[in-house]
């Protein structure tokens, strides 16, 4: 790769003008076996660059423990991009937003109650420096200044939407440069005065993010940065979905027209996204002010769908690019086979409430502490205490529950308390003469990834009270569910089966189910969770993500590399119950 920079209003490669036509593909949302396929499709569409964020929480899951293997092998992703002839833009800022858990920040930052995020707060900067000490030396050999494909890097992400700490931004810039990052650095912000004022850094190229009205947006950028190249760093050509919403779509013709306007203005562009992929595991983010978690699918209604297939948008965009760049004939990699594997019956199960100690070693606490104080990042957490009796009927409040609590009295389901749902902020309890055991199972449904409410502790974050009396003396079981390999499942006899299935199906008893999928030919497939209520699915120990009957997502994408010939283990953790303990593998996604 040559030397990338800019001169006047043009980007240049080795001194010659070049226009960047880039698309976002996040390596951490696509199984590594499919990286080349997606990158070849990006190239085939007429793009010359791929852009990716870097998710800190994926690479440093525990403080000081680093992971760059498998889906986290960032270097490999960049190398493959270079091999297929693409330039690469990397956005490795500590915070990425991206509808990703905590905007990419590691949850362990919150173990320190005094932590200040995204500002010149030395404890935060120390953690960033320790991360950059490991990350940036991996990227340095891949820079275009060292013959690699990386042409530019971002120093923070839409910072003007969050703060105005220039000392912090300059610290990040210096942190990168002193670790050998000598390619073009940039910032990206919304095209509004306060955003550009807060987010721009002296001596760093500013870019803007938007979905429409390019002339207006570029005019605003020019007010702050005249005589420099125009770039839309995030062209929002689709959008993401929250649980309980309709699936967002945008007309392909509209996207093509906005792109044409940008290219006419001699601007460069990065499509956010080109291919969205999947929020596997517990990595989906959430938005506020009314808490709204993002679904597992990150389809985004863009040029490639969640399974990597070209959409009408792909062809409409390529047609526009063809007017500006000579493309030749469209050559795509062979389509990846899809298959319906049919129905799988769950043959084993185990209830959570009856076997809590098998899942987690309990600890005793005066107050119901949040996950982060117990070294837990994701998953579920169970709080148990005893309430003395008798007490007349009253309301149980879980103050600032993050995010959704199932309430049990003597292991009997009482109701749900859900964050920011005004009609679901308390449940009614009546305590018998001998007192009762109160159990509260809280799900972390994804930390906030954008905006002023970023500091998002999980579990019971304030306290639990019956009427106005706070309850103390708690037994806590952390349930991160990062592995399901040691769950003591039991095979059911016909009599037990009928009894237990009736119980698990109807009584809001959180239950783990296990079944086996036998296959002889590997293909992509989609797991249809119709008839199930809410929970998480694992295939061969890999956490596929969450399902919820609220929709719009009805199926979970299962890429073929997660499967193997012969027996495949399916584990479902269902919180409420299912119409019957069966799942179905189909050959099409369903987002409604």
UniProtKB/TrEMBL annotation:
It is an enzyme of class 3 (hydrolase). Residues 11-323 form the Glycoside hydrolase 35 catalytic domain. It catalyses: Hydrolysis of terminal non-reducing beta-D-galactose residues in beta-D-galactosides. It comes from the Bacteria. Pfam families: BetaGal_ABD_1 (PF21317), BetaGal_gal-bd (PF21467), Glyco_hydro_35 (PF01301). Residues 368-479 form the Beta-galactosidase 1-like first all-beta domain. SUPFAM superfamilies: (Trans)glycosidases, Galactose-binding domain-like. Its EC number is 3.2.1.23. Keywords: Glycosidase, Hydrolase. One of its GO terms (molecular function) is beta-galactosidase activity. Residues 510-568 form the Beta-galactosidase galactose-binding domain. Transmembrane segments: none annotated. Belongs to the glycosyl hydrolase 35 family. This is Beta-galactosidase. It comes from Paenibacillus eucommiae.
